[in-house]
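Journal club side-thread
Mid-discussion, someone asked how the predicted structure for our own chain would compare to the paper's figures. Pasting it here so we can look after the session.
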Amino acid sequence: MSPTDASPVVTRFAPSPTGYLHIGGARTALFNWLYARGRGGKFLLRIEDTDKARSTAEATEAIFAGLRWLGLDWDGDAVSQAEGAARHAEVARALLEAGKAYKCFATQDEIAAFREAARAEGRSTLFRSPWRDADPASHPDAPYVIRIKAPQEGTTVIADQVQGDVRIRNDQLDDMILLRSDGSPVYMLAVVVDDHDMGVTHVIRGDDHLNNAARQMMIYDAMGWDMPVFAHIPLIHGPDGKKLSKRHGALGVEEYQAMGYPAQAMRNYLARLGWSHGDDEFFDDGQAQAWFDLDGIGKSPARLDLKKLDNLSGQHLGVMADEAIVAGAQGYLAATGAPPLTEAQETGLSRAMYCLKDRAKKFPDLLEKAHFILASRPIDPDPKAAKSLDTVSRGILAELTPQLQNASWTRDTLEGVVGGLAEAHGLGLGKLAAPLRAALAGRSATPSVFDMMLVLGRDETLARLSDATSA
């Protein structure tokens, strides 16, 4: 059996808390979130913390933080897989009771000897336990594991929504251990029990789990549970086509936040990384949720391309609401350990936003362009800008100051005054713009000098010119 089209969609993201939220894991979470949200379903979060030696509270919090930054909200509380150990063991014992699993008393030495003999004889090294059909009366008083009785003939077909039908011969499947000799459940059992108990209808995960699906299907079949829809998505590769690794750059989601990408851009980019909707590249959350479907996922690994991400990031900054940009900038500063913007700086940034969005790719670009409104007097020019404030330029700026004092503070008037002064000195406007930029912003790359003057206002503009000419 499998979920019907009428069933409410329930997806899940189930990371192991052994480190940061990987970019590949973030995309898996996004695909699950989009699929559920686009269908009015639920998106659940399960922390697979059964590996006590490697799982940490810090890594769990890093996963939460990464998902929150990405804007991937989950329904209900996050579930701890480790806390369900008693329930997992209960299912293993139920299968034992039903004759669909058995006690195996084979020792590690016996299993190793079996495999060594199989290798020597050219046989399959897949362990076949002598205890599978043993009379319980022959069971010794010794430690045992519980193994499932795998089908030994025929074929298991994984009806995968991305990979198509994947066929695995049942004689290639071993009698998987469900419960270890110390009574603890194995991960493969825990995943199935949790997915069933949480009502998961669609298992969307990386294709590195594809082989696990055939073994997990044995448990669904043995328990008579509805089979979820499987969709195994290809992994992300680097630009060189090789498996993503540290040599390709940032791997953790928090690194992308610290690089200054807006979360909206990351969602857009990750959605397009292995999934497509026609030729659409730039879209918002509403469109992504409406469009996302499993048949749009490609079978080949996607390649990370930061130039595309930069391009999308710039487009998103261009259409984001001013307050969202201010909030995103504050988040970026916090992620890099920089001091937050003051209330006055936030107000100034909002006032200047109309002349900052153009051509900014990320928050660092935007904040650098905003330096003129974020900095306070006296403005300290950087080396490149300082070169344009020579004696001649200071003299011209000193002439400009009284002309601006009584000028109407409109763009047309300001352009007329500055342009008239440049012309009087036989200069092009660009020659006067450079020292003006240095005086007003302390930078050589800024928004238009007229935009800066309008944003700063008359008093602040005149004060900065006075500082520059009297230095």
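Post-session note: Residues 344 and 429 are 32 Å apart (CA to CA).
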